[in-house]
Amino acid sequence: CIILLGILTVFFFNVKQIEAASGLLGALSGARQAKSVDEIVVNFQKTFDLETFGSSEARERLAEMTVQAVQGADSPGSLLPLVDKSIMELTKEVNENPLVAKNIIFLAKLQSIKVSITGKDATRAEESYQRALALAPLYPQTYLGLTEFYLITGQNEKAVVTSTKVLELVPINADLFYTI
């Protein structure tokens, strides 16, 4: 009887977290079967609405899924609502955890994707990369993302300068860098 009471107590205090985990799994599996971008956004929103620790995980998964979807899309412009939703959610994550460079880099990547689709908001993407560099100046992924951003915006000279910083940070993998 005491064990059952303990189990019920644990369950009761963790219902929202369990719902969030279930919602995230449902959103991820539902994304494959979704008939529209709007359906994907609605499925993820259900998890965000629970406002639990699971929101951070859901935001990261949404962002990863968005990047992959855009990279594999014949018409990336059709995914703009998904990109916008991902940017909005990752902006919330960055505001809640402003010292986590990984989230800022991911936000900048999404903003760069938006720039490549619309040609707009380039300043935001560059500012996000600069903010990430201020937090984590030795993280090569930031420089790679900034290099990609500069290429997207036609700033080829800046792209070359920025990409050489990666070689300074990771000299052991210089040959690999040139093969990418």
Helical content class:
over 70%
Distance between the termini: 62 Å
Number of strands: 0
Stretches where pLDDT falls below 50 for ≥5 residues?
Answer: 10-15
Q: How much of the polypeptide forms β-strand, as a percent range?
A: under 5%
In terms of structural class, how would the helical and strand content be classed?
mainly alpha
Largest sheet: none
State mean pLDDT (0 to 100 scale): 81
Radius of gyration: 19 Å
Write up this protein.
- There is one protein chain.
- The chain is built from ten helices and no strands.
- The protein has helices at 2-13, 15-33, 37-49, 54-71, 80-96, 101-118, 122-135, 140-152, 156-169, 174-179.
- Helix 7 (122-135) packs antiparallel against helix 8 (140-152).
- It is globular.
Task: Pick out its properties.
0% strand
How is this structure best summarized?
The protein has helices at 2-13, 15-33, 37-49, 54-71, 80-96, 101-118, 122-135, 140-152, 156-169, 174-179. It is an all-alpha fold and 180 residues long.
Mind sketching the topology for me?
Blueprint (H helix, E strand, L loop, with lengths): L1 H12 L1 H19 L3 H13 L4 H18 L8 H17 L4 H18 L3 H14 L4 H13 L3 H14 L4 H6 L1
Helix pairs in contact: 2-3, 2-4, 3-4, 4-5, 4-6, 5-6, 6-7, 6-8, 7-8, 8-9
